[in-house]
Amino acid sequence: MKNKEKHNYGDDFPITAFATTPGNSALTLIRCSGKESIELFASIFDSPAKIKDALGNTVVHGWIPGIDEVLVSVFRSPKSYTGEDCLDICCHGGPVAGKAVMEAVKSAGFRDALPGEFTFRAFMNGKMDLTRSESVMELVSAKTETGRKNAISRLSGALQTEVNEIKQILVQVLAGAEIYLDYSEDEVSAESDESAKEEIAGKLPNKELAKQALDRLQKLYPSWQVERIYQEGVTIVIAGQPNAGKSNLFNSFLKEDRSIVADTPGTTRDWIEAWINIKGIPIRLIDTAGIRETKDPVELIGVERSLELLKEAQIVLYLVDCTIGVTDKDRKFILEYATQAEAHGQIYLLVWNKIDIAPLPQKLSTYVDLMYKVKNAVSISAKTGEGMDDLNYEIVSAVMESHKTSDVSASLGTERQKKLIGTACTALEEALGMAENNEPLDLIAPLLRESVNALGEITGEISTADILEEMFSKFCVGK
Ligand SMILES: Nc1nc2c(ncn2[C@@H]2O[C@H](COP(=O)(O)OP(=O)(O)OP(=O)(O)O)[C@@H](O)[C@H]2O)c(=O)[nH]1
Ligand SMILES: [Mg+2]
After folding, report:
1. Containing domain of residue 374, as a range?
2. Taking the model in full, what pTM does it have?
3. Quick one: pLDDT band at residue 183, thresholds 50, 70, 90?
4. Does ligand 1 lie within 6 Å of residue 391's CB atom?
5. Which of 401, 429, 449 is the last residue of a domain?
6. Which position has the higher pLDDT, 137 or 245?
7. What is the pLDDT of residue 406?
8. CATH number at residue 57
9. Counting ligands in written order, which one lies closest to the CA of residue 296?
10. Quick check: CB of 267 below 6 Å from ligand 1?
11. Which ligand gives the minimal distance to the CA of 320?
12. In angstroms, what is the span from residue 215 Cα to ligand 1's centroid?
């Protein structure tokens, strides 16, 4: 019955979740954590004493009678992921076996874990700070090797260390300011108040330290833009006239024949998409129907969809067939769409295709007007793969150019962290600006405190229940 009750983050009720996705696999892993979880699981195990008496960090073999043969890793509080008593039950895989074990576990008194609840408990029990907790989620959802490496760096504490170091500096600055303030309150008599204030006004102790802290915050702040690219990826749409070689290029990126390539114009009717990886950047690549006026109602729907998809793109690869050159339709399209795109921060790359059978158009004058509308032009053969390295290079440069970052030892992993670094930066900038203008310390100190508090929120030293619930609810179940 207890399973039906509404539960919130923050209780120590025994919880369970699949740590692996149920499906066709040899094994399934079910995690359990919480108060009395070892005793509860023992109640459905064939030799309860073996589980109850098991030392922490040991594995017990046995049966859940009539259900499955299992290997159970036992972790005893506080030496576990969550800091509570925990069990990892390794049972047989497949679509059915794991579910039967899960039913048995729940019948013993465990409830379904909420999203991110294991990591939430790890945080609450002091096993990791918030930056590390968030990196767990980043790690399990990493789309490329670079995304994984960045998440691992945060999981190993690089961001936590950087934030804590900056915070230590600011605490020192704040302490210095407060000593001055105490001095002015205690030592300065009412008559000499004004002159004393003047004396301390603008003399923010350790101003140079505060500037150093600001410099480090300002370097950290833009790292989120780049990180977001590695986490969420970039949408690239391949567009162009029918027969330009869009599907051939799509297949060339994928290194497999996924999209139909044929010399009949209008071959691709419905769009097709796939995730690829270019230099660690996850790319959602979309092949579209060739854009032309048509009376065929099915092709027309395809063309309309292509135009819709263009709006979703961060980068558009506009293909021109070198055997034909720039047609009036190409020109009309690029001049109209690439001009609009500029305003929305989209990037158009002009891609000359089929250079294996035709030279590039020689007369620059025939397309020079288009070059003002696109970021760059690359020549390739989608068929032979020639020029693909150059195209990849142009794509990466286009993605990264607007997000230049300086060398930093740590990078931000979430929007939440970025907002708080932004708050810390703004407050500190304001404090330093006031110090430059010789404004009184009692106005400067609260800004320094605001900056310190924002940094404390990043690591979770300062946090409210609402913020934590909101944050962990975005995690996947079982983490
Ligand atoms: N020689 C050569 N032929 C190419 C190249 N790229 C595409 N082709 C040929 O051009 C024709 C059209 O290629 P597709 O990739 O189907 O063109 P598309 O732009 O997807 O055409 P639609 O789907 O009709 O809009 C096919 O016969 C391809 O083999 C290339 O780089 N070199
Ligand atoms: Mg096609």
Report:
1. 238-401
2. 0.72
3. low
4. no
5. 401
6. 245
7. 54
8. 3.30.1360.120
9. 1
10. yes
11. 1
12. 51
Look at ligand 1, atom 27, and give the residue with the nearest C-alpha: 263
Which of 237, 247, 248, 259 for mutating ligand 1's site (highest number of atoms within 8 Å of CB)?
248
pLDDT band for position 451 (50/70/90)?
A: very high
Question: Is the CB of 288 within 6 Å of ligand 1?
Answer: no
Would 229 be classed as within a structural domain? no
- CATH code for the domain of 424: 1.20.120.430
Give yes or no for residue 64 having a pLDDT over 90.
yes
User: Secondary structure of the chain in the HEC alphabet?
Assistant: CHHHCCCCCCCCCCEEEECCCCCCCCEEEEEEECCCHHHHHHCCCCCHHHHHCCCCCEEEEEEECCCEEEEEEEECCCCCCCCCCEEEEEEECHHHHHHHHHHHHHHCCCEECCCCHHHHHHHHCCCCCHHHHHHHHHHHCCCCHHHHHHHHHHHCCHHHHHHHHHHHHHHHHHHHHHHHHHHHHHHCCCCCHHHHHHHHCCCCCCHHHHHHHHHHHHHHCCHHHHHHHHHHCEEEEEEECCCCCHHHHHHHHHCCCCCCCCCCCCCCCCCEEEEEEECCEEEEEEECCCCCCCCCHHHHHHHHHHHHHHHHCCEEEEEEECCCCCCHHHHHHHHHHHHHHHHCCCEEEEEEECCCCCCCCCCHHHCHHHHCCCCEEEECCCCCCCCHHHHHHHHHHHHHHCCCCCCCCCCCCCHHHHHHHHHHHHHHHHHHHHHHCCCCHHHHHHHHHHHHHHHHHHHCCCCCHHHHHHHHCCCCCCC
Q: What is the pLDDT of residues 294-333, one digit of tens each?
A: 888 888 888 888 888 888 899 999 999 999 989 999 998 8
* Cβ(383) – ligand 1 distance below 6 Å: yes
The chain-wide mean pLDDT, for the chain, equals: 87
Tell me: do 326 and 357 sit in the same domain: yes
Is 262 touching ligand 1 by the criterion CB < 6 Å?
yes
Please give the pLDDT value at position 365. 64
Please check the confidence at residue 234 and state whether its pLDDT lies above 90. yes
Among the bound ligands, the one closest to the CA of 383? 1
pLDDT at 407 over 70: no
Distance 264 CA to ligand 1 centre (A): 9
- The total domain count for the chain is 3
Residues 68 and 179 in one domain: no
